[in-house]
Every structure is written in C-alpha cells, then in structure tokens.
Write a structure and sequence with these properties.
Helix 1 (about 10-15) packs across helix 3 (about 30-40), helix 4 (about 80-90) packs across helix 5 (about 105-115) and helix 6 crosses helix 7 (about 175-185). Helix 4 (about 80-90) links the parallel strand 4 and strand 5. The protein contains 9 helices and 12 strands. Strands 1-2-3-4-5-12-6-11-10-9-8-7 form a 12-stranded mixed sheet, with helices on both faces. The longest helix has 15 residues, at about 155-170. It has helices spanning about 10-15, 15-20, 30-40, 80-90, 105-115, 155-170, 175-185, 225-240, 255-265, and strands at about 1-5, 50-55, 55-65, 70, 95-100, 120-130, 145-150, 190-195, 195-205, 210-220, 245-250, 270-279.
Length: about 280
C-alpha cells in the first residue's frame, strides 16, 4: 500500500532531496527544480511536491510545476497508480508525465485513462554525464570566443530559444523572451561569439553537487563549424572551476549529430529519460 504525501518545498528539500541525491544524475530535473523553488518560491507558484512512501519509507517522489507535466522518480510496481490518483484527488490531472526509463509512462498512462485521451511518447532522451574536468576532451576551437550573455543579447537569446523550443516541440514551452531574461539575470547563458553570437549553452540547474546543462543550440546558419561544441566545453570548464563535481545533460536520442558532439567531448551515457503526453 502506497501513501503519497504532499510536502512544502523546504521540507521536500530537507527530507526527500538527500535521498534522491544518491542517484543525482537520474534525478537531476527534480532535484534541481526543487532546490531552485525552495530558494525562490515565487519562481514556480502552485508547485506540488510529493513523497511516495511504503510502510513509512520513502520509495519515490513526484513534482509538478503547473502547467508543466508531472516529473517522477523511479517508482516501485504499483506506485504509479497511487501518484496518478493523488493528482486526480486534488483535481489536477496533468496532460502527461516524465521520468527515468518507463516510470513517467506508467503515470501518464493513468492520466490518459482519467482524461479519456491517447498516450504519446513525446521525447526519448539520453542522460549524459561528464564526471570530472579531466574527462573533457578538448576539441580544436573554431574562430571566436565564449562569453556570458548580457542584456544587450536579449534579442538574440529570445530568437535562439524560440527556434530551439520549436525544434524540440515539447509541451508547455516557456515564453522565449521571459526565458531569455531569466537566463541573463541568473548569468547562466554562455554564447560563442564569432562576429556575433553563433551558439548558446546554458546552465539549466544546480543540484546538490553537480550541474545540468541545457539548452544547447546553434543557429541553423552556423552549424557544423564547431560552435556548439566549443561553447559547451567553455561552460563545462566554468562550472567545474566554480566547484561543481560533475556536469550532466539531456540529449534527444533521435538527434545523432548532437549525440556525436557530446560523446566527442567526453560525456558518458548513464541513463534514459522519457516524456509522455496525453492527446
């Protein structure tokens, strides 16, 4: 018998996040979001944090930041139904779920039955990690240099993010202009500049010891010149220099070019992450 218990963000971070950190790369999205929201609650109002328990022990977790899909950890058999029922009981049945391996699918399938909808596989992602700075394989740098994005780059960042969101076509993409403004304010966006911005790599979130990169995007007219690889490497070096213990990222399994770039840089495949929607 599973119990799904709603927690305040701060309590979730002190009681659940330390358990999830044992598999920090697999749980990078949930851990990073939870830490950010706990630090700045206004960044994601109406968020729902859940501990999934069996016999008084934590066996999984779920997180929703409306209107985004539910994110789940790996769940024991039968727990997906309990998570889905929890959201139905609070009158909030999302249009999908995401998580490692098949676990998001199991929850989304319940949502599909509640909504009378069709389950669709929206994204099949590989989780990569760069375990240390020494694992980074230096590549020949293209012309130009890496630099932090500033307020003067707001327009080009908005364009890059709009194009990126259009290409990946995931549900509930954020407003590109707002996303750009937040990235600049946090100092999380790096550009490769060669007579103008050519590619971007962002620090998506910090976890307990590592950081996740994303999005990484190269303008269509500037591809196959090494800009994306160069700006990703520059961001990795900066994150390790700041004390992060590892860097990870998500890549579309069906995009061989981006996967080749990350592997060439030294990133290692460690897990899978899938997004399931209800149509």
């Amino acid at each position: 018998m599973f119990r799904v218990r709603r927690l305040e963000a701060s309590v979730f971070c002190t009681t659940v996040v330390p358990e999830l950190a044992a598999r920090e790369v697999e749980n990078d999205v949930m851990v990073g979001l939870a830490l950010r929201i706990a630090a700045v609650p206004t960044s994601a109002p109406n968020s729902v944090f859940c501990a999934v328990e069996a016999e008084g022990k934590l066996v999984g977790a779920a997180l929703r930041t409306p209107p985004q899909l539910v994110i789940v950890t790996a769940l024991p058999a039968g727990a997906a139904r309990a998570v889905a029922e929890f959201f139905r009981n609070i009158a909030d049945v999302p249009d999908g779920a995401s998580g490692p391996r098949h676990h998001g699918r199991d929850v989304a399938a319940c949502f599909a039955s509640f909504r009378g909808g069709r389950l669709e596989h929206a994204s099949d992602e590989i989780l990569y990690t760069l375990p240390e700075l020494g694992a980074l394989r230096e590549r020949p740098a293209p012309p130009g240099t890496a630099r932090l994005a500033t307020d003067a780059d707001a327009g080009v960042l908005t364009r890059f993010f709009a194009e990126f969101f259009r290409e990946i076509a995931l549900p509930h993409s954020p407003d590109p202009a707002e996303y750009a403004a937040r990235a600049i304010a946090r100092g999380s966006a790096w550009l490769w500049d060669d007579g103008g911005p050519r590619a971007i790599a962002c620090c998506a979130r910090h976890m307990t010891s590592g950081s996740a990169i994303g999005p990484v995007y190269t303008a269509a007219e500037s591809r196959r010149r090494g800009y994306g690889s160069a700006v990703t490497a520059a961001l990795c070096r900066d994150l390790f220099a700041s004390g992060r213990k590892f860097v990870c990222l998500h890549a579309d399994r069906n995009n061989p070019q981006s996967n080749d770039v990350y592997r060439a840089l030294g990133f290692e495949e460690v897990a899978s992450f899938n997004v399931w929607t209800v149509a």
